[in-house]
Amino acid sequence: MNEFMIFGLVFIAFGLYAVWIYIKDSRKSYQIVPGKIVDFKAHMGHKGTKGFTTIFEYYYQGVTYTAERNINGAKYSKNSDIEEGTPKIYYTKNRSIVPNSKYKIGDSVEVRVYENEPERAVINTKSDVFLPLIMGSVFILIGVLILTISYIV
């Protein structure tokens, strides 16, 4: 086996794993409860990219939970354009890195709470719920493409 075939098989394996996660989560019992965005936390992604993690809070069966989703990128903004209370990573004197999110602190959100794992909730948006399926499909497609090219060559 050449390196390209191994590379393609690895992509397919990651894709199948992501699709399996989606299928497993879609079969779990869940409830939709109201939640609230409480904060953003700055983080460094792979390859040194800057981003923000959304932190949200929700109430389920008498307990208040706090969860986070690492789905937000960052954007550069002029300091004068940033709303008061928006978290930021200072970049220069006149420009800052702020969350690239449709949410602001205090916004209400729908939260999908899995009944067997209430601490592992997600914001109930199509992108958050379907992300494993989309990513898995893309990885499988890339893997098949790599295998096809390695077979032809």
Structure description:
The protein is of the alpha+beta class and 153 residues long. Helices cover 33% and strands 42% of the residues. The protein contains 2 helices and 7 strands; from the N terminus they run H-E-E-E-E-E-E-E-H. It has helices spanning 3-26, 126-152; strands at residues 30-44, 50-60, 63-78, 89-90, 95-100, 108-114, 117-123. Strands 4-5-3-2-1-6-7 form a 7-stranded antiparallel sheet, with no helix packed on it. A hairpin with a 5-residue loop joins strand 1 and strand 2 (50-60). Helix 1 (3-26) runs antiparallel to helix 2 (126-152). The two termini are 13 Å apart. The relative contact order is 0.26. The model has no long low-confidence stretch (mean pLDDT 80).
Task: Annotate the secondary structure layout.
Layout: H1 3-26, E1 30-44, E2 50-60, E3 63-78, E4 89-90, E5 95-100, E6 108-114, E7 117-123, H2 126-152
Antiparallel strand pairs: 1-2, 1-6, 2-3, 3-5, 4-5, 6-7
Helix pairs in contact: 1-2
Keywords:
single chain, 153 residues, alpha+beta, 42% strand
